[in-house]
Design a protein that fits this description.
By secondary structure, the chain is an alpha+beta fold. Helices cover 37% and strands 24% of the residues. Helix 2 packs across helix 5 and helix 9 crosses helix 10. The longest helix has 18 residues. The two termini are 41 Å apart.
């Protein structure tokens, strides 16, 4: 990782974690990578701000007290730390996921933790728990998404063992045509070579290694396949009503179909496609998220917490 990228990551972490505006002097003393004269640091910071804003990261400028002309400060609000993904190919989605995993690893690396420690050492309150909430890691079941995305681009043949909904293990031979993401899981679509029809597989249900080989020379991607409508006929059985603290639980907010302000709290409506996965995500946010309904989701959370208490005391 280059020093500039490392500095940009640490700057983003610091501005996300701070509970108030950070002045330039605080940024220069707490974020690793700002070196040289005052003018050099100033130029580096201005370029870094432009780079982050060009990536769609909104940096808010403000002061400690609006009634006085205090030195300007900077921060990134959690609720604005989101990307709008509209027209994007399946290969680009898979590459973004790999980048997100690298970002997540960097978020908890030694250098990043030093930035948060330095913030606290100079008296700036910070909250590192807001960082992982901004990273929406998808479950790929341990599979190599780069191999799959390359197979899509080159129309290669993929062979793998798949566990279906009846827990049967079947050997599948497909030419992949798309990767998609839904409710925290990757889905692989392709033309099954045994039946010559399009089939979709949840990637974390692929067992063992995925092997790629040369695909059919005359293969053509099916006409009219619409990735955006892949799950259009899938209906959620229930809607979860979750209350989350204002400015918290970004990972839950991006799953919500609607949000209503309740003052200090927001009420989210989240479709339930996988109760276990959603419950684990809610529990991860601790007392910043509460399940109002349905009852079975709330009971599932209670069971998990009771099990945790029995194990750890």
């Amino acid at each position: 990782m280059s020093r500039k990228i490392e500095r940009l990551i640490n700057l983003t972490i610091a501005l996300l974690a701070t509970k108030r505006y950070l002045t330039k002097s605080e940024i220069f003393s707490s974020v690793e990578g700002y070196e040289g004269s005052a003018e050099t640091k100033e130029r580096m910071f201005e370029r870094d701000k432009d780079d982050l804003r060009s990536l769609g990261i909104d940096i808010e400028v403000g002061s400690f007290d609006p009634l006085f002309n205090d030195e300007a400060g900077y921060r990134i609000k959690q609720e604005k730390y989101q990307f709008e993904l509209s027209d994007i190919t399946s290969t680009e989605v898979s590459l973004l996921s790999l980048a997100a995993q690298a970002w997540q690893e960097a978020s908890f690396g030694d250098v990043a933790q030093k930035a948060l420690l330095k913030l606290r050492s100079i008296g700036v309150p910070s909250d590192e728990l807001t960082i992982p909430g901004a990273v929406h890691k998808l479950n790929d079941g341990g599979q190599d998404l780069s191999l799959i995305s390359r197979a899509i681009a080159q129309h290669q043949l993929l062979n793998f063992s798949y566990v279906d909904s009846h827990l049967n293990h079947d050997l599948r031979n497909i030419v992949p045509i798309a990767l998609s993401a839904r409710s925290g899981y990757w889905y692989l679509s392709g033309v099954d070579q045994d039946i010559q029809e399009i089939r979709t597989f949840r990637v974390d249900r692929i067992k063992g290694e995925v092997s790629a080989s040369k695909g059919p020379e005359d293969f053509e991607a099916p006409h009219g396949f619409d990735l955006s409508s892949l799950f259009s006929e899938t209906k959620a059985r229930d809607i979860a009503h979750i209350e989350v603290r204002k400015g918290k639980a970004t990972a839950l907010r991006v799953l919500a179909t609607s949000s209503q302000s309740l003052g200090e709290w927001d009420s989210l409506r989240i479709p339930i496609f996988n109760a276990e996965s959603l419950c684990s995500m809610i529990l991860w946010h601790g007392d910043d998220a509460f399940i109002q309904e349905p009852a079975y989701l709330r009971n599932l959370a209670i069971d998990k917490l009771e099990t945790l208490v029995r194990i750890h005391g």
